[in-house]
Amino acid sequence: MLLMGRRWVHLVLGGALLMPFFLLTSVVVPLLADGANPFLDVGWQFVAFGGALPLAALAALLFPLLRPLEVAAVRSLCGVPAERLAEGPAVSWAARRRTALWFVAHLLAGGIVSGMTLSAPPAAVVLLLLPFADPLRHTAPGVPDVFHGVLGPLAGLALLALVVGTAWGAGVLLGRAAPVLLGPTPADRLAAAELRAAELASRNRLARELHDAVGHALSAVTLQAGAARRVLDTDPEFARRALAAIEETTRDAVAELDTVLGLLREEDGSDPAAPAPTLDGLEALLGRTRAAGVPVEATVEGPCAGLAPVVSREAYRIVQEGLSNALRHAGPVPVRLHLGVREGELLIRVENPVAGAVAGAAAARPGGGRGLRGIAERARLLGGAATAAERDGVWRLTARLPLTGAGTGTVTGAEAGTGAGTGTGTEEW
Q1: Does the N-terminal or the C-terminal CB of the chain have fewer CB atoms within 10 Å?
Q2: Among the three residues 184, 219, 248, which one is the final residue of a domain in this structure?
Q3: Are residues 100 and 190 both part of a single domain?
Q4: Does residue 237 share a domain with residue 160?
Q5: What are phi and psi of 341, to 5 degrees?
Q6: What dihedral angle (degrees, nearest 10) is formed by the CA atoms of 179, 184, 189, 192?
Q7: What does the DSSP 8-state code read for residue 341?
């Protein structure tokens, strides 16, 4: 019952929206037809009513903001779920045509129901009281004598039922037509899908940056703190150096965290607080890793210092994640890092022995593999490829990044892999 009342209000609103167009046509019709008077002649009123509907359709075609207004009214008064209706203005012409059809239907049904609501109830009251109020028989001379008896109240009740039935039927029809005419068009669905994809890509980008920036620092600090704790009583000088390394590592981590937060500021349209690290900071990264007790042997071939900023930035993150995997999963074991520029691509290889590994054995680690998937995504976005595999007790991470262009990288099984950086088993993308 409450829904029916709200739908009746929605129909009356349509009648109110029809009035400006009706008054405009009521003024124009006498200028086009001699003797026409829509204000006094019922026939010409119907002509003006019919002429107002094309004007309403034209208004809906020219004003895209009409759709969100109608959607808000339908959602609030017609009981149509919001997920079945489109959001935003009608940008495409297909959406505008649908909105115009809806607007005409709303105003047509609203005009009929509003007219019946204004005229039928007073007439019904007269018919209901006619047999019991003798003065009404003299003040309502246009009522046939047949309604002066018992047929009068019956006709009054039938008239009220007609108004209620018409309002109910029109409300149901509009409620069913709303998702079709005000629902998202294929263009709207495509735009929503693209927006969702952009949001997911942004979230994945932030997750990768946060994982790489903070994960490496936490892995190094964990090893440094553990080493300092073990030798605190026997070698205070080593513990002091480890604490100094922890201080430096955390300071650098805060700076990189500020860089990640700068990405959020980029999303808001403002400038980032700090530039993202590139291969220019490779020596500092290696120094922090060595300070954590991991001996790193680095080999650089070719002019890596003059790479494109985007390639240098992603390469730095890949190296950082490779070293983090060694810290996190293999501990203080020797790591070999190789960077080389050859045949128009940057080759990155990180190798480390896997402690206690059995050749070919796979070790499942719940929740792992986010760093590897991040490396795969970074390589794929640049049109490159990445592989990670354990062979003969050595974990080898390899990434190839093209130096020019950005094609579609080959990624095989990226989503299926759940292994982490330096465990046993094989990961391929």
Answers
A1: N
A2: 184
A3: no
A4: no
A5: -105, 120
A6: -110
A7: E
Asked if the structure places residue 425 within a domain, the reply is: no
Could you give the CA distance from residue 42 to residue 402 in angstroms, rounded to a whole number?
Answer: 78
Here the CATH number for the domain that contains residue 290 is: 3.30.565.10
410 found inside a domain: no
Q: Of 155, 184, 213, which closes a domain?
A: 184
Per-residue pLDDT of the chain (429 residues; tens, 9 = 90+): 788 889 999 999 999 999 999 999 999 998 888 888 888 888 898 999 999 999 999 999 999 999 999 999 999 999 888 888 988 888 888 899 999 999 999 999 999 999 999 988 988 888 888 777 766 665 555 666 666 667 878 888 999 999 999 999 999 999 999 999 998 888 878 777 777 777 777 777 777 777 776 777 777 787 778 878 888 888 888 888 888 888 877 877 777 777 767 766 655 555 544 567 888 888 888 887 887 778 899 988 877 777 888 888 889 889 988 888 887 777 778 999 999 988 888 999 999 988 654 333 334 344 445 678 888 888 888 889 999 888 888 999 999 999 875 443 433 333 333 333 434 343 433
Sign of CA dihedral 91, 93, 99, 104: positive
180 and 213 both lie in a single domain: no
Q: Are 272 and 260 in contact (CB under 8 A)?
A: no
Q: Which residues contact 257 (CB under 8 A, 6 or more apart)?
A: 210, 213, 214
Q: Of 327, 329, 350, 313, nearest to 245 (Cα)?
A: 327
203-240 burial string, b = 16+ CB within 10 Å, else e? Answer: eebeebbebbbbbbbbbbbebbbebbeeeeeeeeeebe
The residue range of the domain holding 206 is 185-269
384 and 259 share a domain?
A: no
Residue 368 corresponds to which tokens in the numbers above? 């792992």
328 occurs within a structural domain: yes
For residues 159 and 262, state if they share a domain. no
In 182-281, alpha helices (H) = 186-230, 236-267
Q: How many structural domains comprise the chain?
A: 3
